Each structure stands twice: as C-alpha cells, then as structure tokens.
Description:
Largest sheet: 4 strands, antiparallel
Order of helices and strands: HEEEEEEEE
Low-confidence stretches: none
Radius of gyration: 15 Å
Distance between the termini: 8 Å
Strand content: 35-45%
Amino acid sequence: MAMNNAYLEELATAGKALITHIALKDSTGTEVGDARKAVTWGANDGDGDFLMSDNLVFNMTKGDDVASWSGFSALTGGTEYGGAALTPVEFANDGTYTLLAASTGISHDAS
C-alpha cells in the first residue's frame, strides 16, 4: 500500500534527526576524506523529500577516490543509513571535494 504525503513528511522529519553526519566513500565502500561532516537539513518539500542546507567540503589526500556519500548517526561509529552514488572522482594531488547541497538529499517514494 502506498502511503500519503503526510506520512512521508513525518518520515522525512524523523530521518533528518537520525542522519547527523555525512561521509564520502571510495569505490570499495571505505570512508575517505578528512572526517565525517555534520549536516543540517533543509525544509521538507511536501512529499517526504529534503536536501542538505549547506554544501559540505571535505579535505582529500592524493590517491583518494570518491564514489558515493553515506549518512550516519554520529561523527564516529554510529549507524550507517546509506546514501547515493556520485560521479567518480580520483585525486591526483591533495585537494578538496565539495558535496553540493542542491543535489544531496533524501527521497521517500510514495509509489
């Protein structure tokens, strides 16, 4: 049974409280970058979806590759809730990776 938008909005609100940090992961699923970053979430969009409020900038080391992001309940340890694939990037030198708020969020599907 598909749930209505009111239910999906409640899920989104609860989900925002669960996912407090974001990590980048490489092609093997290992966390990369300097550390998980604290995340704040924007307003729900009316049907259970929401995006990050601000871009997150990660310091990367030569040889790192970025393949995905994942949400966690803590800075270290905690529960991993999953995330999404990213366009792969490999760092030939030390640098930064910016995870864009406008395209990073959680979607709850009613269908």
